[in-house]
Amino acid sequence: MRIFRKELRKIFQFRVIVLFALFAVIFGYLFFAWQYYPGYYVNSAYDVPFYEELVAEYGATLSKTEYQDVLKKREELIDQVEVYIREDIVFQENDVTTYAQFQESHAKEAVTDAEMAVQEETNRFWFRNEATQWLLFRIQVLDNMERDVQFGRIYADEDALRIYADFLNSNSYEARERLKALFMRDEMSLLPDAVYELLNTDFFNLVILVVVCCFVLMLPYQISDRLRGILPIAVSTKTGRRIFGKQMAACVVTGGIVAAVLGGIYSILLAQKHVFVFWDCPLSHNPYRLWVDMTMGEYWILCMVLLVGISMTGALLSYFVGRLSSHYITGLAAAIPAAVIYCAGIRFFTKYMFMIGDMYFYRSYGHSLFRTFGGLLLLAGIAVTMVMVLLRRDKERDL
Amino acid sequence: MLTISDVTKCYGKNTAVEHISLDLDNGLYGLLAPNGAGKTTLIKMITTLLMPTSGEILWNGVEIHRLGAQYREIIGYLPQQFGYYKNNSPRQYLEYLAALKGLPTEGLRERIEEVVAQVGLSEVLNTKMKKFSGGMLQRVGIAQAILNDPKILILDEPTGGLDPKERVRFRNIISAMSKDRIVILSTHIVSDIESIANQVILIKDRQIYRNDTVSAICAELNGKVYEQSMSNEAYEAFEGDHFILSARQEYDGMTVRFFSEEKETEGRTCVPNLEDFFLVTFR
């Protein structure tokens, strides 16, 4: 335990921590989506606050009864936007007086000058008028909800599912039953798409960050011991070649610490952005149909747990690369492709985790629920095997 | 007793050392050979860094790899290139090595202060080693080697970079320690061991050439080492015909120390020293 603590102290040197912190901040500002939240999509700056209000009023989900109540809000919002429409001169000149006419004008292809003028005005209403933007994007949220209900994606019964007969039959039995269960739910989740996209995107950004940080911490630690000639003294002590195992353990723990710290800091930032308002909202709504029922909060906790595992595996990989590198240049030359391949593998197995339907082989429904876990365990197994072979070799080879 | 029994080490087709057999008991052993002769290879096998290709090394009759930690617990090793962390102080560095050596924390502080005092670095115990001179670093290396009060102390080229005063200090420390342990001092600097070694082990052509006391080894050259004074011009011709051990420029010519198998009439015989033997053996 004493040696293990001292090895950890060797890894977490002040200068390296400063470098690692600087890199994390720059990377965060360049690539993380949280800083744009809730502006993740153009409309999400309006959608998400509206969803927050709905959650505050109704909780994490909408029952059928509550949904009818929400539909009344739609009518109120349409009434409000029609006031703006009727007051607008361009619309007056082109006999656009209702929300329905407004939508039709916005959607159709403008040919004449008058039609172009009307369309330009609808764009202004959508994108350049604060008051109407606020109303229109909220109506859009409710329109999308209504579309899902009408198309039998929520609150459905067996009759409503008939329109999906072909689609459902193209799936495996397990996927079909799961999809039917999702369609026939009597609780609509109030989780905005933007939140799920944010979590999914930034989960992978966190993966890249922790993997890079592991290599930044681990490579100097491994290579410097060899370059400084510490190993002959260390290996000739009572501890002997067990030092390699202890160093490996220190690396793995470091990976866990890095993931916990970065994941923790990121979670605090998300909390400050009110993302966790949707903590209890189920991840059950189109387009992110998952094999299992879980809330956004449970999904995020799972992501954090996976992040720790991924980071520890990344630490093993960086330990492996560091042990085989004779100096910093070769270490860097080996670390870059190793990190890229590892991150690519993580991406392959975690893009839209647990979703019915594979994002890469879209038609191949019926993939195993455990594809994500299986894939990550495979990567971990490969890393563990490589390191175990290395440690075994180190027990007997000349130093 | 440390027994090296017919040990050979090969790297592919190259043989570093072969058929090395030694029995080492308490005392100071000087391992003497030119660069590349196999000293470090032998040292590394004793310290378990290398595995012999054939033969075995035994401590009190048990093979050292089988003993494992039990054997490594009683060795102290200063390698040729001494590794350290430049941002550590001697205290921090020795605490780290104490952990590796399995020393208990109880009494450790005092033990560190004791060994540091022994090597004369008490005043810089908490100073970062990046500020140390080469000699100071070497002394830290010696301190770490003796930290666990080893029964076998192995020092590989320990006096590189030390000035004469530090060399003398080092010899005194090592000599005092050799009373109750095995000390193996590997070097190509003859003066390091001539005055303190109980036994000298010379390696030539990858094998043990001599394993005897200094006086017995030097006695082999009795009557064959001469000293003669001559002019510089005469020295030029003399140099071509004789094996010169040393040549010293005086005010009025040269004083030449040389080796000759035949009896010389002009020079006066000298008491041969270990350096003479080294030069004659490895010419």
Structure description:
The complex is a heterodimer of chains A (399) and B (283). Chain A has two domains: 2-40 and 191-396, no CATH class; 44-189, no CATH class. Chain A contains 16 helices and two strands. Chain A has helices at 2-11, 14-31, 44-58, 64-87, 89-93, 99-107, 113-127, 130-150, 165-169, 173-183, 193-227, 230-235, 242-272, 296-324, 328-350, 371-396; strands spanning 61-63, 187-189. In chain A, strands 1-2 form a two-stranded antiparallel sheet. Chain A is elongated. Chain B folds into two domains: 2-219, P-loop containing nucleotide triphosphate hydrolases (Rossmann fold, 3-Layer(aba) Sandwich), CATH 3.40.50.300; 225-281, no CATH class. In chain B, 33% of the residues lie in helices and 30% in strands. Chain B is built from eleven helices and 14 strands. The mean pLDDT of chain B is 90.
Instruction: State the order of secondary-structure elements of chain B, H for helix, E for strand.
Output: EEEHEEHHEHHHEHEHEEHEHEEEH
Shape call of chain B: globular
Level of helix content of chain A?
Answer: over 70%
Spatially, the strands of the biggest sheet of chain A line up as 1-2
Strand order in the largest sheet of chain B: 6-7-8-3-9-10
Structure classification of chain B: alpha/beta
Gyration radius over CA of chain B = 21 Å
Instruction: Please give the alpha-carbon distance between the first and last residues of chain A.
Output: 25 Å
At CATH level 2, the architecture of the largest domain in chain B is: 3-Layer(aba) Sandwich
Count structural domains of chain A.
2
Helix/strand structural class of chain A? mainly alpha
Strand content of chain A: under 5%
**Residue windows where pLDDT falls under 50 for at least 5 positions of chain A:** 361-366
What is the H level of CATH, i.e. the homologous superfamily of the largest domain in chain B?
P-loop containing nucleotide triphosphate hydrolases
Report the strand count of chain B: 14
